[in-house]
Each structure stands twice: as C-alpha cells, then as structure tokens.
Amino acid sequence: MTSQNFNLIYKAIQNNLQVHADFDGHHRELCPHVLGYKKGSEQALFCQFGGSSKSQGLIAPQDAQWRCISVGQLTNLRVIEGPWYTLDTKKKKRTSCVDDVVIEIPFE
C-alpha cells in the first residue's frame, strides 16, 4: 500500500504539477521527476527550484538543484499548479536515487 504522499507526488508527475512541502526543517518548492522505491522505501527525485535547504539557504529558480528525498519524510505536502522546472538530464541521478521506478517524467 502506498502512502498519501506517494499518491500526491504520483498525481503531480502525471500532470506536471509542483509539490510544496517541508523537509529537514526547510520549506521546499519542488518539481517531481521520478517516483519509486529505494531498498523498499518510497523515494523521489525532485528539481528543487524554491524554498530553502541546509546546504544552500534560500533557493531561486536559477539555483535549482536535484534533490533525492524520502517521501515519508515530507510534511505539509501540497500539490499546486505553477511553472515547471527541470535541470540538465545529464546531471539526473535517477539510478542512485530510485531503484524501482513507478513513474517518471520522460526525458529526451
């Protein structure tokens, strides 16, 4: 059985929607690209384009970074409409983030 967070992120990927949530003490503004499992735990690869992080502080779209996040550790998760952000696919780290892919954004 999948978690509510997993189901919301799945919907966001299907519809190119943003995910806003809290993780590791920071508000994150994210575009999900890959959703699945890592060693049996729900995991997702996001492009973080806004909010903040411990390593970067405040993040603007031009400073976007890939983030590999445990789905169960996201709180206050909301799916919203907004601009879609992504990064160079050569830098995508799907293989190290998600072992068993359930859904992902097609990359060219």
Question: Would you mind describing this structure in some detail?
Answer:
This protein is mainly β and 108 residues long. The protein has one domain (4-104). It has 2 helices and 7 strands. The chain has helices at residues 4-15, 94-97, and strands at residues 18-23, 26-38, 41-53, 57-58, 65-70, 75-80, 100-104. Strands 1, 2, 3, 4, 5, 6 and 7 form a 7-stranded antiparallel β-sheet that branches. A hairpin with a 2-residue loop joins strand 1 and strand 2 (26-38). The N and C termini lie far apart (31 Å). The mean pLDDT is 91.
Outline of the structure:
With 108 residues, the protein is mainly beta. The protein is built from two helices and seven strands, in the order αββββββαβ. Strands 1, 2, 3, 4, 5, 6 and 7 form a seven-stranded antiparallel β-sheet that branches.
What are the defining features of this structure?
108 residues, mainly beta, seven-stranded antiparallel β-sheet, 2 helices, 15% helix, globular
Low-confidence stretches: none
Instruction: Summarize model confidence as the mean pLDDT.
Output: 91
How many domains in all? 1
Approximately how much beta-strand content do the residues carry?
Answer: over 45%
Shape: globular
Figure out the total of helices: 2
Structural class: mainly beta
User: How many DSSP E strands?
Assistant: 7
Helix and strand string, N-terminal first? HEEEEEEHE
* C-alpha termini separation: 31 Å
| Global Rg | 12 Å
Largest sheet descriptor: 7 strands, antiparallel
Portion in helices: 10-25%
